[in-house]
């Protein structure tokens, strides 16, 4: 290492921790910012923007997240099939009835880098609509994000 070189964390020495967050009663945006910070690794002292230094996050009870005001009826989620006329639009309430996990996934994905690194980091997010998850073997730590 030369005199003026910033030390980089070694990929071998990075330890990845697993966290569980219960989404019951939290606002979508506030929860998503905390999740994005953890899976990106910004809460660690060895954070490096061009490396994956983050931890895994398991979100349970995704169907119990909320929005403020009249947003449950006004907020729209769009997707497109790629075919002409293939735009599908649905409200927060409709998407929460159909696929509640997608609400948190879309919120977090929008806060990550739009490149290969962002797609790699996004795979560290596991969202489940109920209180059960299949990751007990990883011994996840339960955390509560501040409101």
Short description:
The protein is an alpha/beta fold. The chain has 5 helices and 6 strands. The protein has helices at 28-40, 71-74, 92-98, 100-109, 116-122; strands at 18-22, 56-60, 76-80, 87-91, 125-127, 141-143.
Can you offer a commentary on this structure?
This protein has a domain at 15-67 and 96-142: Ribosomal Protein L13p, Chain: A (Alpha-Beta Complex). It is 28% helix and 18% strand. It has five helices and six strands, in the order βαβαββαααββ. A four-stranded parallel sheet has the order 5-2-1-6, with helices on one face. A hairpin with a 6-residue loop joins β3 and β4.
CATH class call of one domain: Alpha Beta
CATH topology of one domain: Ribosomal Protein L13p, Chain: A
Order of helices and strands: EHEHEEHHHEE
Name the CATH superfamily classification of one domain. Ribosomal protein L13
The number of distinct β-strands equals: 6
CATH architecture of one domain: Alpha-Beta Complex
Judged by helices, strands and strand pairing, the structural class is alpha/beta
Report the sheet-strand fraction: 15-25%
User: Rg, please?
Assistant: 17 Å
Q: What's the tally of helices?
A: 5
Tell me the helix content. Answer: 25-40%
Shape: globular
Question: What can be said about the biggest beta sheet?
Answer: 4 strands, parallel
Unreliable spans = none
Question: Biggest sheet, strands in spatial order?
Answer: 5-2-1-6
Average the pLDDT over all residues and give the rounded result: 94
Cα end-to-end separation: 43 Å
Family: Belongs to the universal ribosomal protein uL13 family.
Keywords: Ribonucleoprotein, Ribosomal protein
GO biological process, one term: translation
Organism: Dactylococcopsis salina (strain PCC 8305) (Myxobactron salinum)
